[in-house]
Amino acid sequence: VQLQASGGGLVQAGGSLRLSCVASGTILRINGVGWHRQAPGEKRELVASLTGVGNPNYADAVKGRFTISRDDAMNTVYPQMNSLKSEDTGVYYCNVEGTHRRYNGIQRFNSWGQGTQVTVSS
Length: 122
What we know:
- The protein is an all-beta fold.
- It has strands at 2-6, 9-12, 17-18, 20-24, 27-38, 45-50, 56-58, 66-71, 76-81, 90-102, 105-112, 116-121.
- Strands 2, 5, 6, 7, 10, 11 and 12 form a 7-stranded mixed sheet that branches. Strands 1, 3, 4, 8 and 9 form a 5-stranded antiparallel sheet that branches.
- It is elongated.
- The mean pLDDT is 94.
């Protein structure tokens, strides 16, 4: 399963961005999804996730500002990011896990997108 992330860019502090991550392949079911970010010189960290039953989880730094959602019909995951701060700058990666059909049967997958740059100017 391949993931294609998009929607990053340059935005002023206080602004908003909506990223998207589209999963392609013979997907049967999407379970957990998540968005991670990696700031320059820092480790990659989880900022938002959504369980298979729709329970969201947010890092403290983004609570109240980010909202993660998913459209299973489109195999797409979105984080709506509002009130952006300079510390939100980084490369954002999506992660999706689920099951897909392979030539030899049904298998689990855990895929990562290529990352999309978000830069927040103060």
